[in-house]
Amino acid sequence: MDRRDSWFVKSKHAVVLDRGNYTSCTVNLLGATVTSWRINDKEMLFLSRESHFTGLSHIAGGIQFAFPILGDWEFGPKNGFARKTLWKLVGGPEKLHSGDVCATFSLMYNPYTLSFWNFKFELFYKVTLYEKKIDFQITVVNWDTYPMEFVIVQRCLWRVNDVTKCKIKGLKNCKYKDFLRNGLTFQEEREDVMVTEKLDRVYSRTPNKLVLKNTVDGGSLNLLRRNSRDVLLWNPWIGDSLKGMDLGNSCYLTILVSR
User: Fold this and answer.
1) What is the pLDDT of residues 18-67, one digit of tens each?
2) One MF term from GO for this chain (predicted)?
């Protein structure tokens, strides 16, 4: 049977939600990483051909988590353990009356997570696939009796035909911290932000809606966020920046990262 004839397929480490009409998404249980999102058979996400699915490292690409910390961590792996840990499918997949498909995944504290971070927690991650969009709902539960401080970030690696022609609309007048200029703060003056060199910025107090123009086949992508005002824009460009990232030598032309 062709994969697209079924609205749900589960392999050992991946769940495929298929809405029909060649629209689908794949969630790998390693990190609950969304490794593919297709609309009318057009892939929206970047996934490196050099990605490893062995569990020894996180998946290079797709939509992934940083939890409970972002960046270097003296007690555990960089950007936390969530993207390097196997999650469980705990709800669905369920096909709704509208034809949309949803599934819920969970990551609960265990001896591995407690060895880095001594908190009893549970993450719930609901993914809903629509005809022209995909929606994510993230819930964090604290099972301890004392407060729990954490950072949770959803990092999206978007596929574009040519990053130098891609435009990001909605950031004008927003302040950003530029990590390539000693972390200094600047204000964005451009109506449309474009990528012409290595990029590593965090914009603060951004609108809830941003638009990525000229993504796949010249199309646009609306990014709608809830309870999050900070946006990361990143592109490795070329040269030494690609070493050790499992991204491939020419990926910089086809990748734009946001969170």
Assistant:
1) 999 999 999 999 999 999 999 999 999 988 766 665 555 567 788 988 89
2) carbohydrate binding
Residues in the chain: 259
Contact yes or no for 29/87 (Cβ under 8 A): yes
Token pair recorded at residue 27: 């969630």
DSSP, collapsed to helix, strand or coil, labels residue 224 as: strand
pTM as predicted: 0.86
Give the integer Cα–Cα distance in Å for 33 and 24.
14
| 29 to 62, 84, 112: CA distances (angstroms) | 13, 10, 16
Beta strands in the chain (DSSP E): 8-10, 14-20, 23-28, 33-39, 42-43, 63-66, 88-95, 101-108, 121-129, 134-142, 153-159, 167-169, 175-178, 184-187, 192-194, 199-204, 209-213, 221-224, 231-235, 255-258
Q: Which domains does the chain have, with CATH numbers?
A: 1-157 (2.70.98.10), 160-259 (2.70.98.10)
Which of 208-244 are b and which e, b meaning 16 or more Cβ less than 10 Å from the residue's Cβ? eebebbbbbeeeebebebeeeeebbbbbbbeeeebee
Residues in the chain where the model's pLDDT stays below 50? 1-8, 10, 240-242, 244, 249-250
pLDDT of residue 217: 81
The Cα–Cα gap between 35 and 18 comes to: 14
CB 151 within 8 A of CB 140: no
Nearest to 132 by CA among 36, 5, 37: 37
| Integer Cα distance of 113 and 81 in angstroms | 7
Side-chain-side CA neighbours of 7 within 13 Å: the count stands at 16
